[in-house]
Write a structure and sequence with these properties.
The protein is mainly alpha-helical. α9 runs parallel beside α15. It has 2 domains: 182 residues, Up-down Bundle (Growth Hormone, Chain: A); 188 residues, MFS general substrate transporter like domains (Growth Hormone, Chain: A, Up-down Bundle). It is built from 18 helices and no strands. The two termini are 31 Å apart.
């Protein structure tokens, strides 16, 4: 089989065999970063009920503290590009992982609401830098592979989140102190990130708009050939273009809101409202993330066959029916299944919105993707305080109605996504 870095029948250079091995190592390194990023924060989530009870927080106070994480991410996100250009994506991703682990450890040990919010703010800011940097390095590796592999990294993130959730559930079930638990998690995954650094691509990242500057590959055009997109097939007026981009932001934010409801409130709802034990309460988040992982495994094939629009609409229906039924007929099994259905429903939503924004005609390269990636964090920012305020005014069961409402939003906005390819 010829090397993917050669063209025609020309003999491969003598150094060619080393390139695939370098790429495989880089892919492994990026996969380890995604695994670590998913596992770190997920370790803290099953401890939320104990943190809330230990600090005697109301639902609104707890929601505001949790919102500090996406607030930090939102404020720090714009600095990611500057840092990556200055220090390289590999360095920023690993350094951000180390600082994220310290922030989450501090959150687990926080003795007051203010320190909890401050620790989550720091962790969120560092997580945003890590997220952008690891995706940037993943796209660099993908350009060299010349085929789509980004979804596989996000599936590995889901594996990490399930792993972290199970670790947190086990620690809660064993009544392990939060300091010991989060200390072990921070040390373990910081070590994994340092190992991953050795596998990542060396040298500077290719600057945007000149994808071949770092490693030149014949036959590529800005790395777009890997996605099958060379030129936009249509043009849009300025008002229409920004309206479509706004709809894509709302689609991505709806997916973020569903994910946040599972991470921030599933354990609290199952334990306080439905009376589940700490270890069982963690299964709501595990179900959501596990189903999301399964959806990402098959998502590419479904999108190729049915189109992004149809897949998003089916997902919106799953979210509405799954969580809607669980909230109308509350029980521990139904709620866990409901969160699982919600996770499956939004599995491909954020990647679809990002992909559509990146191909939006009339925008400079990367503009649509940057806007969606940054503003979608509003879903993570607004969800915790809104759910907390509604829960204090009524109950948490009512507050979680934002999840099926997000599914309705997906159904309403899905026409902006691409239909089935002909």
């Amino acid at each position: 089989m010829s090397s993917p870095l050669t063209t025609g029948n020309a003999p491969a250079p003598a150094s060619t065999p080393a390139v695939p091995d370098t790429l495989r190592r880089a892919r492994l390194g990026v996969a380890l970063l995604f695994l670590t990023n998913g596992a770190l924060f997920a370790n803290l989530l099953p401890r939320y009920p104990a943190i809330k009870e230990g600090l005697a927080l109301s639902n609104a106070e707890f929601g505001l503290a949790v919102a500090a994480f996406p607030l930090g991410a939102l404020l720090a996100g714009l600095a990611a590009g500057v840092l990556i250009r200055r220090f390289r994506s590999a360095v920023v991703a690993v350094a951000g992982t180390l600082l994220t682990s310290l922030g989450l450890l501090a959150a687990g040990l926080a003795p007051s609401w203010a320190l909890l919010a401050a620790a989550l703010f720091l962790a969120g800011a560092m997580d945003a830098l890590t997220d952008v940097a690891q995706n940037s390095h993943a796209l660099r590796v993908q350009r060299l592979y010349r085929r789509s592999i980004l979804n596989s990294f996000h599936a590995i993130w889901s594996i990490g989140a399930v792993l972290g959730g199970l670790m947190g559930a086990a620690a809660a079930g064993l009544d392990l102190s939060r300091g010991v638990h989060m200390g072990i998690a921070a040390a373990l995954f910081a070590a994994v990130a340092l190992v991953a650094y050795r596998f990542l691509l060396p040298g500077s990242d290719a600057p945007q708009g000149n994808a071949g500057a770092a490693v030149e590959i014949p036959g590529t055009v800005e790395g777009q050939a890997a996605h099958g997109v060379l030129q936009p097939a249509r043009t849009l007026g300025s008002a229409t273009r920004w309206a479509v981009l706004a709809a894509l932001v709302l689609l991505a934010a709806s997916g973020a809101l569903v994910e946040d409801a599972g991470s921030s409130w599933s354990a609290v709802y199952l334990s306080t409202t439905l009376g589940a034990t700490a270890s069982v309460a963690a299964l709501g988040f595990v179900a959501l993330t596990g189903a999301q992982f399964a959806g990402r495994l098959v998502g590419d094939r479904l999108v190729d066959r049915f189109g992004q629009r149809a897949v998003a609409q089916a997902g919106g229906i799953l979210v509405v029916l799954g969580m809607g039924t669980a909230l109308l007929m509350p029980s521990i099994p139904a709620t866990i299944i409901g969160f699982g259905a919600a996770g499956l429903g939004v599995a491909t939503l954020v990647p679809a919105a990002m992909h559509a924004a990146d191909e939006l005609p009339g925008l400079k390269p990367g503009t649509g993707l940057t806007v969606v990636s940054w503003l979608m964090r509003l879903g993570f920012l607004l969800s915790p305080p809104i759910v907390g305020a509604v829960a204090d005014a009524t109950n948490l069961q009512t507050g979680l109605l934002v999840v099926p409402l997000a599914g309705v939003m997906v159904l309403l906005l899905s026409p902006v996504l691409a239909g089935r390819k002909r």
